[in-house]
Amino acid sequence: MTFLMLITSPFIIGFITLAFIKFIYTYWDRQGFVSVQPKLIYGNLRPTVKYQQTFSNNINNLYWESITTPYIGIFLLCRPAILIRDLNLARRILIHDHEYFDHRGGKNYDPFSANLFSSKTLNAPHLNEKLSQIFNSRNNQTLFETILNEGHRLTIELEKYANEPGPVTVNLQKVLQTHILNTLSSLCFGLNVNLFEANSIIHKQDNNQFKLINNEISKNGGTSRIQQALKFLYPNTMGKFTKGSTDVESYLVDTVHNVFRSRKENNIVRGDLIQLFINQQENDNKKEDNSTPLTIQEIAAQLFNFYSNGTQILSHTIASFVHELTHNQDELDKVLNELDLALKKNHDEITYEMIQEMSYLDLCLKETLRKVPPISLISRECTKNYVIESTGQTIKTGMKIIIPVTSIQNDPKYFKSPEKFMPERFLFENTKFMTADAYMPFGIGIHSCPGNELTKLILKTTMVAVLRQFVLEPIETNSEITTKCSKTTETDKHHELLKKVIVKRRTELNNN
Questions:
Q1: Which residues are annotated as a binding site for heme?
Q2: Considering Cα of 461, then 462, then 468, then 473, what sign does the dihedral take?
Q3: Domains identified in the chain and CATH numbers
Q4: What is the pLDDT of residue 244?
Q5: pLDDT tens digits, residue range 327-384?
Q6: Which of 100, 31, 154 has the alpha carbon at shortest distance from 467?
Q7: Beta bridge partners of 113
Q8: Residues of the binding site
Q9: Per-residue confidence band for 111, with pLDDT thresholds at 50, 70 and 90
Q10: Is the separation of the CB atoms in 357 and 409 below 8 Å?
């Protein structure tokens, strides 16, 4: 009997498990929701598990499975979730009825996750208020000189390639990533790292701690598609295994503390984010309304958050921005004409005001952010039962909600000819041809990215610094890259295109 039980037990357990999973997959039928047919074990994530698509691509592709319903039930492996397809419902969730969805679904196991984006709850008015004071247009103007200096450093690097005899192939993707790291290191921590130089601070033995920061970002940004999916699905469980390095935390807190002390003792003022936090803390301490200033640890967390998220967002977006302009000559010519006129008007000097007045450049960036938004998915978790007004169906507490931003912004229902690069669609007289509310590259509502204007300023300043002096000529074609990167994102294709670029001076091109 015992021997028989040993033999049959695995089969019984397997049968029960299989039956239970099949029962789970009837969830949406039992709830009366339209759903996408799941695959056993995989749910609707088979392309991700099979390494055929990224997690983001996989989810965004599900958007097109049912084009007539405002939302569809899906299965993230064995976990049910709701994919929002209707723009009005998405806006209700993110704006009007956000109190039902103030939860991303993960506990803060890492004590260093005291930032707006990794917080379990989105209802953090104290943090929201402090960050809105930091990320405003007045402060962006203060930061501009630092951003421009890094743009100048980028042009010096590109000049080396332009000086080579004959056309030289440049890995522009790597050059731009290095530029982004330089810019954010300077903006966030006041560090003059200059990663273009071999003897840069980051390459020195006594700066191993700064290497840890970048390694931590690389580790988080380079997780496998399966790990990304699991962190998205089961943040509580995965959070226990993905805690940040305590060495990085200690180093950053010490760095911020030392910079605070040094600048106060020596009356040093610099145009960077850490200075803005110093000013904010000093102002809060002077107020008589019992304003609670951010702690050093909270400030360090915010700086690390902007540095780590900014590294990925800016690197991806600048690749797409360059790609679109270098593959759409008419639009590039308009940008160059606008740039030349602006420089002539401004006595050949790049200023904050000049960047802000370059309206066509702004249109091109908006269109880039529409085609390839930096935030491709927005997720929420329902915190209390929510009745969908249009259908009367109920989203239950604990349900994962996903809004596929990339799909919405590339839906012909909202944007005419979405596959085309058409900056003019954002002109006031053309807005009738699109649904403006469908544009949300940095999220919408009170929980949208507070640093989006600073991000756009960095992108536009970088582009102006480069286009002022150089012409970029990618070697490989779109078709070649599409074949190579069929299993990756559109941004990855743009990265691949920039790995082989010829850099020429604009003056040389004009002379020819």
A1: 449
A2: negative
A3: 86-511 (1.10.630.10)
A4: 53
A5: 999 999 999 999 999 999 999 999 999 999 999 999 999 999 999 999 999 999 999 9
A6: 154
A7: none
A8: 449
A9: very low
A10: no
